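Sharing a chain and its predicted structure for anyone who wants a worked example. Both blocks are below, sequence first, tokens second.
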Amino acid sequence: MYRILPFIHLFTVLLFSQEYYGKIVDLGEISEAGTDIIIYYEDDKVRAFLRNYTNMYGNKYFHLFGKGSVNDSSLELHSIVSSEGIYGDGGIFIFELNDNKLFSDRLPFVLIKNDSKSRKIMGNNVKKEDILFDASYIHKSAGRELVLTKDESLISKMADHKNENNPVEIAVALFENILPSNVIEKNFVKNVFKDDQYVIDNNYSGYTYKTCADDYDIEEDYDGNCKTYNFYRYNKQKGDVMLVEVEIHSTCLDDSCFHEYHQLRFIEHDDEGWQILSHKSGMRCEELRGGGSPPCL
């Protein structure tokens, strides 16, 4: 029994490892301030927790996640920021790791690996399983590259809907001003091209709203008056964040079709209910059609 314990320990280290970096500085009148980060490596994925601390209000904590390994000298990680019980999109951090130091232009100073003073003053750090992460950023689509920009048009409306149970229904409510009054509601159906044929992917759920009946002849809709609004989520998405996707289609009869596209990311807080982390929007090409003019090259 005792002979296999070292092997078990080595096997665990290979699957899961961690690194700590920190720095404490004397700020004079307000005493000390510190920043530290714990980084967990597992397979080809990274989770980390970053603390920016002073003895004043408004301290920020970042849950970080992305691709990488313990041998990398540079990490690019997405983040969720938490401050005073409110979550938000923390943006991207780029870390450079060199000579037992960690550098980033988003940090107030360079962090030192295994800094004992930081460990003592900052106290116990967060466990890997308690770090929030958004798996939709880690999974890369095989389709065309998608370029989206930050959109704050819906943030102010979120307070009226945070206590609703279903983020897909919250997304519908946030877009209620653009949904026509005469739309027809149906369950969303996701069609994918697989094995040389179109099939339904039952891993998606949501709602579809159409301004035209199913028997409407879209070949006669030259002005694109018939519109379809899709609100849906991927049911097997892992992580703490729920991604809701929104598509707004007009009739298009050629291969260069594109539509308005939105990504809304939600997270649930025990006390505050559902919060919107981010809203990004842009134009996306029809996934099941061919090329054409920009943005559908």
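Comments welcome. The first helix runs from residue 5 to 15.
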